[in-house]
C-alpha cells in the first residue's frame, strides 16, 4: 500500500499558540468552514486530548486517535498507538492531521502539505505549533481575511506544499 499524502490543518497565532486548556482560543467561522471542507470524507488524525476536546467523531470523516494509552477507547473512532499503525489505519490517499501540538510535531517531518491559518492574535496558550523550516515548503495559496462578522480576528489562509515534492 502506498503511504497517504499527509496534510496538516492548523490555525496558529502570531506567537505559535494553537490552543489553551484543550480548547479553541478564538472564534473564526470562516476557518471552521475551511476545516470542514478540507477534511470532509477523509480520515483525520488527532491526539487523545484533541478528540476529548471535540467530544465526538465529526460527521463525514473517520477519526483516528493516536494515544500511548493502550486502554483508551473512543466510541466511533479508531484508536492507534504509533505512526506506522496510523499510516496503515488511514486506508486512504489522504490523511488530515488536525492536532494537537504533539501530533503536529510527530507528523510535520512527513507532511506533504500544511493548510495553515495564521491568526492575527497573540493569546496565552499551552499548546503550540512546532517551529519548522518554512523554506522547505512552497507557498501555493495565500488569502487574507479581515476581522468582522463571525470572525473575531483577522487571519490569512496559507497553503504550503513541501518544496522537494512539488512538481509544477
Describe it.
It is built from four helices and ten strands, in the order E-E-H-E-H-E-E-H-E-H-E-E-E-E. By secondary structure, it is α/β, with parallel strands linked by helices. It has one domain: Dihydrofolate Reductase, subunit A (3-Layer(aba) Sandwich), CATH 3.40.430. The chain is globular, with a radius of gyration of 15 Å. It starts with a strand and ends in a 6-residue tail after the last strand. The mean pLDDT is 94.
For the secondary structure, the number of strands is 10
Mean model confidence by pLDDT: 94
Quickly count the helices: 4
Which class do the helix and strand fractions yield? Answer: alpha/beta
Write down the overall geometry.
globular
Query: Which CATH architecture?
Result: 3-Layer(aba) Sandwich
Strand content: 25-35%
Q: Low-confidence parts lasting 5 or more residues at pLDDT below 50?
A: none
Total domain units: 1
Major sheet characteristics: 8 strands, mixed
At the fold tier of CATH, the topology name is: Dihydrofolate Reductase, subunit A
Give the ordered list of helices and strands: EEHEHEEHEHEEEE
Helix content: 10-25%
Mind telling me the C-alpha Rg? Answer: 15 Å
Strand order of the largest sheet: 5-4-3-6-1-7-10-9
Q: Termini distance?
A: 25 Å
Name given to the CATH homologous superfamily? Dihydrofolate Reductase, subunit A
State the CATH class.
Alpha Beta
